[in-house]
Amino acid sequence: MMKIFKLTACALIVCLLVTGCGNNAELEDNHTVVKTDEGEIKADALYEKLRDKYGISVLVDMIDHQLFDEKYKTDETEEETINAQIEQMKAQYNNDEEAFNAAITQYLGVEDENELRDMLSLEYKRNLAIEDHVQDSIADDEIQKYYDDEIIGDMSVRHILISPDTNDDMTDEEKEAAEEDAKKQAEDLIKQLDDGA
């Protein structure tokens, strides 16, 4: 998701750079945007690359904003979650605003904390939509069946009982010797099983 936002921010920055500050904000198709020793980059080639590379992600974000902002109104839980995430991010930069802003611009492609809040809000609402979809589409009995079949799987359990050969007529020493013999048999059997028998 961070990649999408980086790409969106890059597209926005390039568009702002390309349009400039003059009255004529559009570049003609054959207008040179960048000129280097190796050649030129024309406006139509730039627009084509921007549209192909970033257009879909920008469109998806816009659609998600429209759908999710309507269905999932911002509430106190969302605000608390976003605030906690931002505080955690700021703590990584020792609450240095300048370092924090540079990091979110570089790594997340957002210009300021407000854009970051918007991005985190969209992510939060996307997660709510996913949870709703999963709850609506998967029944509890299906989850239990999957758990029983796949997580636990088929198990075969066997029980081996080794008991000492004792009776009431034996002396304490004989009973103790029989228990030691049974213990030795059990230890030998465990060793065999550990060795792959």
From TrEMBL:
Reaction(s) catalysed by this chain's protein: [protein]-peptidylproline (omega=180) = [protein]-peptidylproline (omega=0)
Gene3D superfamilies linked to this entry: Porin chaperone SurA, peptide-binding domain
Disordered: annotated segments: 163-197
Keywords on record: Isomerase, Rotamase, Signal
EC number(s) stated in the UniProt entry for this protein: 5.2.1.8
Signal peptide (residue range): 1-25
PANTHER family: FOLDASE PROTEIN PRSA, PEPTIDYLPROLYL ISOMERASE
Protein name: peptidylprolyl isomerase
